[in-house]
Amino acid sequence: MEIKADTSVCIGAGMCVLTVPKVFDQSEDEGTVVLLEEKPPQELEDAVRRAVTLCPSGAISAT
3-state DSSP call for residue 61? Predict the structure, then answer.
């Protein structure tokens, strides 16, 4: 799995951080998504897919 995050679309809701804090963080300056791991371990894939679904702006994608 590979994750992409578009900070220009992110609205800083923080759902990704709340769902998978090992993979996502938020910028202290802008509050937008910070990707900690582009290729998370397999055991986090279900949680990452949930974070993608919960993102209200569609800023996160996983393939």
Answer: strand
